[in-house]
Design goal:
Elements (H helix, E strand, L loop, with lengths): L1 H14 L2 E4 L2 E4 L11 H10 L15 E15 L4 E13 L15 E4 L9 E3 L16 E4 L3 E4 L2 E7 L11 E10 L7 E11 L9 E15 L2 E16 L2 H23 L6 H23 L9 H6 L1
Parallel strand pairs: 3-11
Antiparallel strand pairs: 1-2, 3-4, 4-8, 4-9, 5-7, 6-10, 7-8, 10-13, 12-13
Helix pairs in contact: 3-4
Organism: Tribolium castaneum
Subcellular location: Membrane
Keywords: Membrane, Receptor, Signal, Transmembrane, Transmembrane helix
Length: 313
């Protein structure tokens, strides 16, 4: 019986957290970290501790300045839907008073990359969007935060905007489209949006096969509404597009002149000439083919009937 008691005491001693045996102390070791924490880890923990990403990072009586810019990568104009799709990079920068640190306390670290869902972001929307999608049209890319609290965010974005098309001079027409950006829920006393120095950039533009951007402008507007005393600023981008029409000259303009010549020849022929019937039939057939082509290429929602359609009819 005494031997059994001694065995139980020994087993319990090995199972305890600390066991003194022959002058040595034995400890149970827990899981050890694979790597040591870095300065970046410490800075992230210090900045994001108790950080509320849903609260504007400024005192309620201060205004958050947001600087806006756009880099256009590609455009697509859908004439039947009267929409312009712009593939772009949007440039947003602002100051976050909660994300400031002294680089000397963090090994000289002056910038930090944070995920876009970790910090507050201005709710900049396209007011005249052709779709109902909101800020989700921005790509999920990191924000660059500088030690003074300045934040730079350059996500890829796709915008679909409504355009009022004027097809009077089709296929030699020029179209103008507006993109209006602004905060959806904040007024101008809370968020003030300004254009950056570069405005609309097109150095990385992949050209469209049918449309050229011949002019662009970016300006700030201040709007007041009867409901509210505070202003609502927005950034308006004007894009002027010119149709690339060499192929239309060969497919439409040249045959149209042929039809005009056939009509004139028909008047020059004697009334008794049998060729007039054949000529009139050919002219009518060509005009019908033109009308079929126009119905496929020209939307019916344009504000003006193209002059070339008027001529052919």
């Amino acid at each position: 019986m005494a031997n059994i008691l001694r065995l139980v005491v020994v087993v319990c001693g090995f199972c305890s957290s600390d066991v003194a045996f022959a002058g040595f102390t034995t400890r149970k070791l827990g899981p050890q970290p694979i790597w040591n924490s870095t300065v970046t880890d410490k800075l992230r923990q210090d900045l994001l501790l108790n950080y509320d990403k849903f609260a504007r990072p400024a005192q309620h009586y201060n205004t958050t300045k947001v600087v806006f810019g756009l880099t256009i990568r590609h455009i697509e104009l859908n004439e039947f839907k009267s929409t312009l799709v712009v593939h772009s990079w949007i440039r947003l920068s602002w100051k976050d008073e909660k994300l400031q640190w002294n680089s000397t306390n963090y090994g000289g670290l002056e910038t930090l990359n944070l995920a876009d869902h970790e910090i507050w972001q201005p709710d900049i929307f396209l007011y005249n969007s052709a779709t109902s999608s909101g800020i989700t049209h921005y790509g999920n890319v990191n924000c660059i935060v500088y030690e003074g609290g300045d934040v730079l965010w350059v996500p890829p974005a796709q915008f679909s905007v409504l355009c009022n098309l004027n097809l009077k001079y089709w296929p030699f027409d020029t179209q103008r489209c507006e993109m209006i950006f602004g905060s959806w829920t904040y007024n101008g006393d809370q968020i003030d949006i300004d254009p950056d120095n570069d405005g609309v950039k097109m150095e990385l533009l992949i050209e469209n096969s049918e449309w050229n951007i011949v002019d662009k402008s970016l300006k700030k507007n201040m709007k007041y509404y009867a409901c509210c005393p505070s202003p609502y600023p927005d950034i308006t981008i004007d894009l002027t597009l010119s149709r690339i029409s060499p192929s239309y000259k060969a497919l439409i303009v040249t045959p149209a002149f042929v039809v005009i010549i056939l009509v004139l020849v028909n008047f020059w022929l004697p009334p008794q000439a049998g060729e007039k019937l054949i000529l009139n039939g050919c002219t009518a057939l060509i005009i019908c083919l033109f009308m079929l082509y126009f119905t496929q290429k020209i939307p019916t929602m344009g504000t003006h009937t193209p002059l070339i359609v008027v001529v052919c009819t």
